[in-house]
Recover the amino acids of this structure.
């Protein structure tokens, strides 16, 4: 089977000791030769035997990126049964990301989620009995990636991409309607107009690329949700956490829910923290909607802060929340320690396995304990800064670069005096590439646009 | 019980429109005893709407039909009265031929061909029932109760099923042009479990030439040199004297008349239920939808040489008769217009085409094929293309040969059929060049190089024509190779020619191939610099020029096609039970169960099936295979 060459980070994308970047496919060896400078500079990886390890540095042009070990495995004796190269580098998000970027720049494609496993299976490396597991992995990883691709994108960036796509689609539809109905729609003088518009589009794409290189097109941080019954002190806690001395606060607008999200830096760890409506059993319809949303928020949170009013006895609603957070990374906070407690740490510890802390949001008491508990979680890797963020960012960058290339090709076609139907080819590619970022395909978009914007037909 | 007439044949074609004609001719020419049914022998190959063949992307279809051994191209070459190559100033991929036909002659000429084709007989009768036995077609029954048995049946009923013509509050249960509609077949199809749609289309009025003031219109001429549709037609034979069309415009007054009578349109009052096509909107639709446009083009086109009737292109309508008179006479040049035939909308039954395989055979009923507007398409050319494929496959089935499918990288016909059987489509489908993702390779100029070999293998292309094609292929290849080795120096003669075409003079030697690639130059222009150039037919030189000039783009598309073909080749077994495939998302499973795609490629084009679902399916098929 002949597939193209793919690459991905094989280890977790976090600050661990060692990171592995895996390349698989026909081009794996020639790519490594272009970016790897072995200690003995004469050595060509393509000529080295299989199952050998080589020491040297990864370079991007003249810039040295990292000191690494390179493992060579020739197909069919590798995980995917294809020629495979693994780069063992120093862990660290930035280093791994740079190395992966340079691998991609030199001819590999960023692997789809689960793609190594898929190839291993299709190439006969994985046992038949594991086929179902393989299918599960592919489906779940893809759904996760798709979700994160769109959900991690900042609202403002998503809007911008949608607008850019709209512009491209309009021009594409205009050209196509003129080609389809030359007697109704004229393209006279259109090339000059288009040239200017495409130049502007390219500028915008470049801006986006720069933003993405700074990692600022994504929402980052640990998704943290504050849960609790009404009046348990959730908002007070948020306000304390947002206190000036430790907080950089930004409002992230554009989320679909009306729940406010704030970003907080806790000594280098960024939390995306959201306050939710209080959860209690209620017949009030409006309140029920708020409760449903709170649950939705909590469902894909990385960390839950469950706030309990320790001056009131636990009731059915608490039981429900405790059950709900059973399998989630959570910290239980017994608030209002300044009042006479009815619920003690010991009582709570019997009901839940999560750490229980006593705090007073009002007096800002116990907040330091909370911070150190969050830090502990993070550094023990129990709450990890989502791997997907880095990968998603890289995917988006690749798509933006492709878009830029396609649009530059349109300019070139115009400069060369090619006819308009050639612009369509590259405009279509640009439209498709941008679509990848927001998870949308071309589908019937073009045909619909032609009919809705232009009066064509007999 | 009285005894009824019975007859046996091999293939039955229901309908004698553009799809039916191609289907019947293909079957008979492949040696099968074929009977073609029509409600009226006088309406064979009727053109009930516009009086032309071809146009953007439709011209491609006609070329392809011809390259495969179909009839439409030859027939229009014999009967056209004006011809134009559209988009001639654009890239070669979008050049499209369009010819005005003498409608009556077109119909008469096609009828003559049919009547003189061996193995083919025509029967005037309405087919009312499809006969089957355990999901296999056995024949048809007609209105009189006669039974005709056959091994394959091809349905090409066009717009005749339960047809209803409407304008204003007038509604007639007839097919186009007042012809008898077919009112029983739908129920028979429904009883067989076939899902039906109701579509709508429309046509403008025909007016009397003598009532038109042409001095207020712009004359539209045909091309000076006519290019034939058929690869078998000698261009010398068709340089005829052409007739003109005329261009005029609607105006604010026209639009006001329409707006104030909108409430009397059956479209807006709800009398019409069918779904109409967006690409040929009625004039009332245009006025409503594009309210900011203060005029719309109107093309006045002759219906033939021996009639005064003229077609009013761009003004189809279903407004009441009195409004039509007022509306048409508000157009410049039509002040004293005499209407011969009213504009009307027509509603008809057709099928949900996703019940078909890409071979155009029904998935659930073996031996039953269909083509044309019955499949939810629109247009004469789209119909003929499907009729040809349905005919070829119906014949191959009877002959025990493997059925053929053209894919999206081979032909517009492939794009057309794949779209019909794979995509959600709720309006009459029209071909457009933008629907073809590999259009740079699917040009009208190379249809023979793409398809004639296939036509030969099928048996519709003669040995002589095939040998000519092989010779043409060889000449093209040799000439491309030769040109890449011709060196052009910096001689004065060279520089002079370059300067005369505003091309940068040479600083050092270069090959002829590289010069041809310059946007401002081409193969023909550079002939004076190429003294050893062999004498080549126009068709050969054209291919050499295009292939060299657009090499970069062509290579890019060829690479995409390679990827595309990989997925097309991965067939999905017919008996695959999608409930058995783990990890498919529910939406994808439902879609796959509904469509039963024949290949992974087709599955990947179904909306609602994600790339991850395709990966899962690939893994499952591999597991099943081991």
């Amino acid at each position: 089977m002949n597939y193209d060459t793919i690459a991905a980070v094989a280890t977790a994308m976090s600050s661990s000791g060692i990171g592995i970047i895996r390349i698989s496919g026909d081009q794996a060896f020639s790519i490594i030769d272009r970016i790897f400078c072995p200690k003995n500079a004469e050595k060509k990886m393509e000529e080295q035997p299989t199952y050998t390890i080589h020491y040297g540095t990864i370079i991007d042009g003249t810039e040295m990126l990292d000191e690494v070990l390179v493992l060579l495995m020739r197909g069919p004796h590798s995980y995917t049964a294809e020629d495979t190269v693994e780069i063992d580098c120093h862990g660290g998000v930035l280093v791994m990301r740079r190395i992966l970027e340079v691998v991609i720049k030199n001819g590999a494609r960023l692997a789809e989620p689960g793609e190594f496993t898929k190839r291993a299976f299709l190439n006969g490396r994985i046992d038949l009995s594991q086929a179902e597991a393989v299918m599960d992995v592919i489906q779940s990883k893809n759904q996760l990636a798709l979700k994160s691709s769109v959900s991690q994108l900042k609202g403002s960036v998503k809007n911008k991409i949608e607008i850019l796509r709209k512009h491209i689609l309009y021009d594409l539809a205009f050209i196509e309607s003129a080609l389809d109905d030359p007697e109704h729609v004229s393209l006279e003088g259109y090339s000059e107009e288009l040239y200017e518009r495409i130049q502007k589009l390219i500028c915008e794409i470049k801006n986006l690329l720069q933003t993405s290189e700074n990692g600022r097109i994504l929402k980052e941080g640990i998704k943290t949700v504050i849960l609790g019954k009404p009046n348990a002190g959730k908002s007070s806690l948020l306000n304390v956490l947002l206190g000036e001395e430790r907080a950089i606060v930004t409002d992230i607008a554009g989320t679909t829910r009306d729940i406010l999200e704030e970003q907080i830096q806790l000594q280098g760890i960024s939390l995306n923290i959201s306050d939710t409506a209080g959860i209690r059993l209620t017949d009030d319809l409006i309140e029920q909607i708020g409760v449903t949303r709170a649950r939705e928020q909590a469902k894909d949170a990385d960390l839950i802060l469950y706030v309990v009013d320790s001056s009131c006895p636990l009731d059915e609603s608490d039981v429900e929340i405790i059950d709900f957070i059973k399998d989630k990374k959570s910290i239980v906070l017994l608030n209002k320690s300044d009042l006479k407690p009815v619920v003690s740490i010991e009582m709570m510890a019997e009901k839940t396995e999560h750490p229980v802390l006593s705090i007073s949001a009002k007096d800002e008491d116990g907040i330091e304990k909370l911070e150190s508990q969050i830090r502990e979680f993070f550094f023990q890797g129990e709450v990890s800064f989502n791997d997907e963020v880095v990968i998603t960012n890289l995917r988006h960058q690749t798509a933006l670069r492709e878009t830029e290339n396609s649009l530059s090709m349109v300019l070139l076609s115009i400069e060369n005096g090619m006819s308009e139907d050639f612009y369509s080819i590259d405009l279509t590619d640009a439209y498709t590439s941008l679509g990848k970022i927001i998870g949308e395909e071309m589908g019937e978009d073009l045909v619909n646009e032609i009919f809705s914007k232009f009066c064509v037909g007999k | 019980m009285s005894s009824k007439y019975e007859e046996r044949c091999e293939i039955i074609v229901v309908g004698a429109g553009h799809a039916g004609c191609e289907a019947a001719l293909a079957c008979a020419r492949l040696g099968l005893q074929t009977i073609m049914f029509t409600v009226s022998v006088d309406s064979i190959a009727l053109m009930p709407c516009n009086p032309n063949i071809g146009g953007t992307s439709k011209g491609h279809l006609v070329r392809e039909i011809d390259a495969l051994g179909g009839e439409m191209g030859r027939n229009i070459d014999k009967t056209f009265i004006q011809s134009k190559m559209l988009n001639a100033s654009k890239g070669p991929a979008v050049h499209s031929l369009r010819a005005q036909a003498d409608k009556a002659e077109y119909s008469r000429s096609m009828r003559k061909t049919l009547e003189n084709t061996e193995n083919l007989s025509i029967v005037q009768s309405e087919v009312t029932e499809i006969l089957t036995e355990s999901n296999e077609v056995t024949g048809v029954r007609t209105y009189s109760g006669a039974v005709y048995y056959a091994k394959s049946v091809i349905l090409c009923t066009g717009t005749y099923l339960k047809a209803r013509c409407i304008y204003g509050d007038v509604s007639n249960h007839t097919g186009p042009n007042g012809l008898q509609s077919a009112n029983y077949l739908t129920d028979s199809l429904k009883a067989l479990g076939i899902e039906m749609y109701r579509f709508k289309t429309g046509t403008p009025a025909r007016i009397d030439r003598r009532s038109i003031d042409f001095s207020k219109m712009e004359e539209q001429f045909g091309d000076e040199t006519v290019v034939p549709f058929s690869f078998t037609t000698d261009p010398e034979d068709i340089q005829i004297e052409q007739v003109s069309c005329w261009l005029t415009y609607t105006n604010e007054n026209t639009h006001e008349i329409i707006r104030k009578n909108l409430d009397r349109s059956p479209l807006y009052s709800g009398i019409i239920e069918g779904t109409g096509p967006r690409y040929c909107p009625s004039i009332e639709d245009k006025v409503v939808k594009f309210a900011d446009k203060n005029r719309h083009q109107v093309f006045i086109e002759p219906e033939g040489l021996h009639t005064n009737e003229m077609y009013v292109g761009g003004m189809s309508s279903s407004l009441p008769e009195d409004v039509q008179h007022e509306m048409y006479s508000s157009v410049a040049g039509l002040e004293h217009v005499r209407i011969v035939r009213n504009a009307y909308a027509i509603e008809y039954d057709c099928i949900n085409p996703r019940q078909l395989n890409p071979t155009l055979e029904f998935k659930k009923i073996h031996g039953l094929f269909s083509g044309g507007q019955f499949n939810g398409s629109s247009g004469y050319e789209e119909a003929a293309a499907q009729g040809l494929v349905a005919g070829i496959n119906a014949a191959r089935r009877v002959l025990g040969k493997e059925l053929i499918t053209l894919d999206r990288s081979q032909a517009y016909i492939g794009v057309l059929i794949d779209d019909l059987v794979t995509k959600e489509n709720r309006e009459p489908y029209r071909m457009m060049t933008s629907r073809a993702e590999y259009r740079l390779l699917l040009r009208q100029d190379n249809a023979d190089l793409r398809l004639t070999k296939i036509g030969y293998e099928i048996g519709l292309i003669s040995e002589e024509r095939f040998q000519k094609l092989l010779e043409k292929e060889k000449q093209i290849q040799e000439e491309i190779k030769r040109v890449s080795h011709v060196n052009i120096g910096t001689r004065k003669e060279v520089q002079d020619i370059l300067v005369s075409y505003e091309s940068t003079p040479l600083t050092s030697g270069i090959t002829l191939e590289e010069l041809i690639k310059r946007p401002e130059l081409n193969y023909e222009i550079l002939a004076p610099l190429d003294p050893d150039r062999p004498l080549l037919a126009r068709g050969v030189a054209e291919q050499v020029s295009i292939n060299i000039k657009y090499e970069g783009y062509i290579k890019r598309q060829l690479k995409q096609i390679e990827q595309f073909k990989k997925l097309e080749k991965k067939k999905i077994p017919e008996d695959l039970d999608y409930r058995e495939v783990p990890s498919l998302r529910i939406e994808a499973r439902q879609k796959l169960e509904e469509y039963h795609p024949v290949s992974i490629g087709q599955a990947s084009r179904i909306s609602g099936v994600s790339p991850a679902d395709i990966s899962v399916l690939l893994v499952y098929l591999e597991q099943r295979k081991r």
